[in-house]
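Hey all, sorry for the wall of text incoming. These are the two entities for the joint prediction.
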Amino acid sequence: MKHYTRWVKPPVASHVTWGCGYGQPNARMQYTGSSFSSDFAQRFRSVIVMLRRQKAPEGYFPTDAYLITDCVDAVERRLFSVIKHGDVSAGKLSRHLREDDPRIAFAAALLALVLIAGLVVLSTGPLQ
Amino acid sequence: MTTEIATWLGAIHVAIVLTLPILLVGIVNRTKSLWAGRKGPGLLQSGWDLLRLLGKRPVYSAVATPLFRTGAWVVLAAAVLAALIAPILGNFAPLQFNHDFIVFAYTLGLARLFLMLSAMDVGSAFEGMGAAREASFSAFVEPALFLLIGSASIATGHTSFAGLIGHLHSAPAFPMLVIPAVAVLFILLQAEASRVPVDDPLTHLELTMIHEVMILDHSGPELAAMQFAGALKLTTYAGLIAALLNPFDPVFAPLAAVVTTLAIMALVAVAVGFVESLSARLRMRLVPRYLLLASIGGSLCLAAAASTWSF
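and here's what came out:
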């Protein structure tokens, strides 16, 4: 019996996270992405832009203080800029077009026919 | 290579991977003790500590998820896998295939990822800070490893990790490569195994820690897994240094290769102990600069390998 109890361990215990005295931490209090990477980003601050907006707490019981940081991803920003630009261009074009105009349908059908004919010609010749 | 020799070398490699982490940590601690004028703990003390931890009941944070519980074992499994890919004995590794060095690097990366995730899972601000530091510093470590591997690839033309390290001795660039390569691997060892001057495994002030602060909430068997994984990384990098310096081919002179490897790994552990006895941990802002030295060393290796490359 003694030998048996030696290898059967008691169930695991639960305790608060080590917080150096603060006993209510949880995973939702963790760092934001930009603060997690700030240590690395600070070393490359000449090429990595960090936007920061903040409102300092005022009074004894502040209610609307905030800190917003955003590590700007240049590639992502450019990508969204191009998409936005394309969207604006498409919007301008659509304002000049009327859906019920038969000339647009005729032009689209003609374009499709030309494309199909071109592919057929190419497939029997240069593309083979 | 005959099957019999491969089996024996594989068994010796696995034995080194399983036992040497305990012994190397013991040698490092004994060296530090002797420098401090003390006798110090026995060489196998860290093994007894691991056994003690394995017998303890773990205590989990109330907010920990299953990710926290599995994290330590993933870290250990990844460290074991990386150690089996690393050609500790020279031109041989139990797991060997084309471009396996990429698997080696990112297996260690997986271990690092799970270490950070399990640290952040419990919600401690201190452990999150340690995870951020780990992520930041590892970004400086990875280029050095790939520069070194790229240099060995240019110098030897091989595509497996064992082929790269094992045939480096016969490469024309070896005399120019060897010193910076050993220096790079030594810095990588200090960074991956959380040793002084990059990190201090003995400090217990949360604000100054990197690895230890991430495992503050680990206890019992999980803590043992984390500690063994750390020692295993030290063994892996010490083994890579040994493979670089070992002149014997394990296929043609297995006994001499194994004995020389063990002796060089012990010397590396003594060197780690020397550094830890004679220097303090670097200030946090200076750590990236120290790690950049490894990348500079890797660049020197690359230049040396390229200078002897015949088109």
